[in-house]
């Protein structure tokens, strides 16, 4: 499982994108060694087969408009996060739009303080303003989490502080536990509520050194995803006080999110909570091993002027790698490495705002747990030889 959740780039411009993507997927599926399995790799039959041993009685009646297995999932999430209730949504985008809209109504302030690299700003088509009539304020434009001082000195009042934990586009960055507490306190001093975009909160416990319940207790509401880190088919939950969650259910219906049957997504989410959630700490530890091996390997590799592992010590089981080459060239080198050696180290690369510099994201899951430092070094040697 990996986490290429936004549009991918990197195919050479003179190659048909569809054919090239098929070649990429074929190479990834056929590889003997990989750090994770990509979202584009499994077939429908393979995904359906994983539902057969879900931790739920499949002889129970199927859900209708959110009862049955969907309600069981909601109760499970509320229990894990220590909240009064949780509501299932077909997408995280819908969940967060509704959460922020409801908080604006309750606080009487339509301004949401958030980072410009956060998901609502980057990947939701300006829905906060277009659909919900909300405005945003940016505590900082730096590629990092905001500071408490920046929250305290934001020049206009805001009703909600939204924190993306981790901040994916900045490198899956998290604040320290102390910094997070200070951020929340600064928002409270401004009489604002706090919402956590916790799409990847599940794997943040290692960095914070705190259980999920203690992390979630800092916020007024929390959104979590089921496919980004847990391998689910899709869907999300909003968790928080019972009255707030019930209000979000009303808006979920208005937004078209009251779906007739949702048991495939709910079953896969329950399976992810059962199978993947306990493994996430081991993924984080392995990501740190891989990152260090890459840092040392790039420093010793001929022809590599410089490289960047961001963050140098990963906060979660995902991190960025930056290299001074064009993205199509790097993607092709990774593809040839997979086809010719049966090992997948890097997948697709993306251009960055810096000309001639590209970035890719690495995710470590079960297939990557067996990699040693020597395995990473060897695969990196194969990759750089093809640049």
Task: Name its key features.
single chain; 387 residues; alpha/beta; seven-stranded mixed beta sheet; four-stranded antiparallel beta sheet; globular; disordered N terminus
What does this entry look like structurally?
The structure is a single chain. Helix 4 (92-107) crosses helix 11 and helix 14 (327-341) packs across helix 15 (373-384). The protein has helices spanning 17-30, 44-49, 69-81, 92-107, 119-122, 127-130, 148-152, 177-189, 205-208, 212-216, 242-254, 263-275, 280-300, 327-341, 373-384; strands at 33-34, 85-89, 111-113, 135-137, 160-164, 193-198, 221-225, 236-240, 308-310, 318-323, 343-344, 350-351, 358-363. Helix content is 41%, strand content 14%. The chain is of the alpha/beta class and 387 residues long. The protein contains 15 helices and 13 strands.
Question: What order do the helices and strands come in, and which of them pair?
Answer:
Layout lengths: L16 H14 L2 E2 L9 H6 L19 H13 L3 E5 L2 H16 L3 E3 L5 H4 L4 H4 L4 E3 L10 H5 L7 E5 L12 H13 L3 E6 L6 H4 L3 H5 L4 E5 L10 E5 L1 H13 L8 H13 L4 H21 L7 E3 L7 E6 L3 H15 L1 E2 L5 E2 L6 E6 L9 H12 L3
Parallel strand pairs: 1-11, 3-4, 3-5, 5-6, 6-7
Antiparallel strand pairs: 2-8, 7-8, 9-10, 10-13, 12-13
Helix pairs in contact: 3-12, 4-11, 13-15, 14-15
N-to-C terminal Cα separation, in Å? 26 Å
What helical percentage do the residues reach? 40-55%
Low-confidence stretches: 1-13
Per DSSP, what share of the residues sits in E-state strands of 2 or more residues? 5-15%
Largest sheet: 7 strands, mixed
Radius of gyration: 21 Å
Number of helices, counting only DSSP H or I runs of 4 residues or more: 15
Principal-axes geometry comes out as globular
H/E element order:
HEHHEHEHHEHEHEHHEEHHHEEHEEEH
* Number of DSSP-assigned strands: 13
